[in-house]
Specification:
The structure is a homodimer.
Chain A: H1 2-22, H2 29-36, E1 41-47, H3 58-70, E2 75-80, H4 91-97, E3 102-105, H5 129-138, H6 141-149, E4 154-161, E5 168-170, E6 184-186, H7 189-197, E7 201-203, H8 207-215, E8 221-222, H9 227-232, E9 241-244, E10 253-259, H10 260-265, H11 268-304, E11 307-310, H12 313-330, H13 335-357, H14 359-367
Parallel strand pairs in A: 1-2, 1-3, 6-7, 6-8, 9-11
Antiparallel strand pairs in A: 3-10, 4-10, 5-8, 5-9
């Protein structure tokens, strides 16, 4: 009797363990793998964007959602807006040091520390979104980006793109290159250097500070993104003229980066989820901006009387000449910087050659004679 | 002694179960979820592409790889090329009926059965890749596509895009619209109908049959994709002239579809993996074509003496007029067809309005006076 009790007790224990830990399916390889990787990773993701800003700020939230759902909660990432844990421009160092496991921003913000980082965001008169994605994912770009960030203990991923940006908001008309002289403008990265060479005064500010700076006259002009995002920041209430086309950010890649120790602590399936989900977010942000920009543009014009103006052709020509100079000079750094510049330039030259007869030729053919083009 | 033996035996069993099925971590929610979803789903994916064809055929293989890695083998998909299980143009019915769980193809192949399906692949003189992705994922397109395929027991996803295609390979010069008269050309979907209206004879053939048909003179011309993919099919050995720009497929979306019963049998995490991985593949295919087309173009010109020609402007104008007529007439079907056409048209008109001053204006500004444009 006592023997039987013990025996039954042991089976009851076995049954409990089965119910709690093993499910009702027969043991198989997937069970084993799942059991070995059952740890929950609770991560912090810090961003350069105001919390939940449409487009840019929504991307890391969607990334975290995908990862949570795909992993059944095993990778549980909480997103913090700029200033919630650290300031917008402190996220690179904070993730590098492990204060948070992950960040979402734009690589040109780190140009003071790593000039070559700018090539992984956007280059004035350089590649558009589709071309950047080709370089990063099938042209050797991502491997160079990983090499560049490795000494900072970070693993970068492309995680969003706004498409061609607008040239920005101005409180005065731009009729000639001379009108840029003395202009105080919020414009980051290489575009800012080009403006400086044209006699302007570039200022780097996070998104949360742009509106106030423009409203109070600290700056005379600003670029931000495009109609959908700019409307969300109410930039139309602080400036009168809205210029196109953007020449300075023709398809900026947004970045996600992961602290390297945190990355290496992940099992292979969660690593793969991050690699795949960032690619999905990379497509998603561009898709969302593409879908929403026009109705925001119509709102800006029809409800807010914004004046949309084209930059004069000779201003664009001059900016292009200055851009080519600035980019070439900025990338005369160490051996890795030179390799990055060469990789970008060689690829750009090739992709542009084909796009002349494909993407661009098609857009112009589609335009046809409807518009007199 | 005997009692102790039984007791030890029970603990040994417990320990074994622990090692086999539960891992060494304490039991938590993620364990439970993982255990509940430990079933392995072994699926078949059938495609319209030759096995492992660069670009198009590689996409479903990469999709399966991502899913296998993310799920630790719980979603294990084997990819079959055209003709391995069923013929290229039989995959829609085969997945609909459950012969395979998943398919990868292009929606215009199903136009005989569902004319409106063509709108989810590509429309002559319509949207490019970036614009299609915006419509599908943030403009209501995907929801309409799901509604259209629901009666066929299929759940569709966007899963690849080639970008603007080339106008194709021709064994005679095209100097006027009259040169299309009587031309037997492999060209699927709405583009084929436009050719018919211009007096040509459109033929629909899967990729595996295109080369032979052109080589043997069954057809006089063919479009396929672009330099990277066309080189892989050796089309340059069967035709002399390579024309641009493609007007008939300005950014065709490739599709993945899942049998609805198979879809509903999946736990939520695996469903999310399919949703996310198809988005990643959607970006990846476009990136790969973008990165590889130019070097293939250079090979075609320099090593194979291919003559690259522009379609005359008046031919493009006439094809555009015919396209607008054909698309409008083809979409006068049932209520859902009309809704799809209206959604596409309204979105296209809006996105084109913005891209006139952003993507297109930028490409033309970048071209600058270097090329006399």
């Amino acid at each position: 009797m006592r023997l039987r009790q013990v025996f039954y007790g042991a089976w009851a224990l076995l049954l409990m363990v089965g119910l709690l830990g093993c499910g009702t399916e027969p043991v198989n390889q997937a069970d084993l793998a799942a059991a070995n990787e059952s740890k929950v990773y609770r991560w912090k993701l810090i961003t350069t964007w105001p919390k939940n800003l449409p487009g840019l700020g929504v991307a890391p939230e969607r990334l975290a959602d995908h990862l949570r759902k795909m992993s059944n909660g095993r990778l549980d990432i909480k997103v913090y807006g700029a200033g919630e844990l650290v300031g917008a421009f402190e996220i690179f160092d904070a993730v590098s040091q492990g204060t948070a496991e992950m960040g979402h921003g734009a690589a040109y913000y780190w140009r003071g520390k790593i000039p070559a980082a700018q090539m992984f965001a956007t280059v004035p008169f350089g590649m558009n979104a589709q071309e950047m994605n080709g370089w990063l994912h099938h042209g050797g770009g991502l491997e160079l980006w990983r090499e560049l960030y490795a000494p900072f203990n970070l693993v970068p991923f492309a995680a969003g793109n706004s498409g061609v940006q607008m040239a920005g908001w101005f409180n005065k008309e731009i009729n000639s290159i001379a009108d840029l002289n003395g202009l105080k403008m919020r414009i980051p990265g290489l575009g800012g250097e080009v403006l400086a060479r044209a006699g302007g005064v570039p200022v780097s500010l996070p998104g949360s500070e742009v509106y106030t700076a423009l409203q109070t006259g600290v700056i005379d002009a600003t670029e931000w993104v495009g109609p959908y995002n700019d409307l969300a920041l109410s930039l139309h209430t602080a400036a009168q003229y809205y210029y196109y086309p953007g020449w300075h950010e023709p398809g900026p890649t947004l970045e996600a980066f992961v602290n390297k120790d945190a990355w290496e602590s992940l099992p292979a399936d969660l690593q793969e989820m991050i690699s795949v989900a960032t690619r999905a977010i990379n497509e998603d942000m561009l898709s969302e901006f593409t879908a929403r920009n026009n109705s925001a543009l119509v709102t800006l014009i029809e409800e807010h009387d914004v004046e949309v103006r084209a930059l004069p052709q000779d201003v664009l020509e001059r900016l292009k000449t200055l851009s080519d100079e600035v980019v070439a000079e900025s990338m005369q750094g160490d051996e890795l910087t030179k390799r990055i510049y060469k990789s970008y330039s060689d690829y750009f030259s090739a992709v542009k050659n084909y796009h002349d007869i494909s993407e661009q030729a098609y857009l112009n053919a589609r335009q046809g004679s409807d518009d007199g083009a």
